[in-house]
Sequence to fold (251 residues):
Amino acid sequence: MRFRLKAFGLHLSASAALLTLILGSLYLGWYRWPGWYLTGAVRILVIVGIVDLALGPTLTLLIANPRKPRRELARDIAIIVCVQLVALIYGSTTLWRGRLLYYTFSVDRLEIVQASDLETGEIALAQQHNPALAPHWYSRPRWVWAPLPDNPEEATRIAGATLFGGPDIIDMPRYFRAWNEALPSLREKLVSVSAMPSLSRADKEVLMKRMTTLGLAPAQRNALLMWGHPRLAVAVFDPDTLRIRVILKAG
Fold:
């Protein structure tokens, strides 16, 4: 039993170290709050965690028999490690492709933009026409303004295409502008939590209680919905400086 526990401990330690290194880097770079919540990344983490931290070391515990030939034992552990690596590669690749690139303010809401939302052609156009805000493979999440173009014909074309499932303005970083430029428009769109039609009555009550606990004014026009994939959050702003005070789960 001592041999089994030693093998289990070594396997668990190695798995935890590798998982922490890879997923920790992704979290620190792209999935800090509210990123992991709005993207639903927890589902991927659960799958990878079950395989790499629970299933893999547990199987090693079961098969680690000191009387088993070393070659056979090494083969069995290698098979387990391969399954773990497949799960880790799947999880890290999925998270990398869905990494957060932008938090956008557009029209009357805040929305996230993930790497998987942007087409290669749009990225190339952004790098050509809007290099300061264009995405790159190393880009970290940025807060930007995504207004419709000043050209009425172009704005109408984009709005019309969106209605039929075409790309939205938030998927076109060539039109993005600095966050500070959005503040006058953003101030006009702030609403109280009770005035958010997309939230249920129960969700509003929970949010207002949390805001009161945090010393915020739930009846004040100081909030905007944040739309994620697939979750919602509420960003509460300081009405004077328009800095975000807190981002709360909605629901």
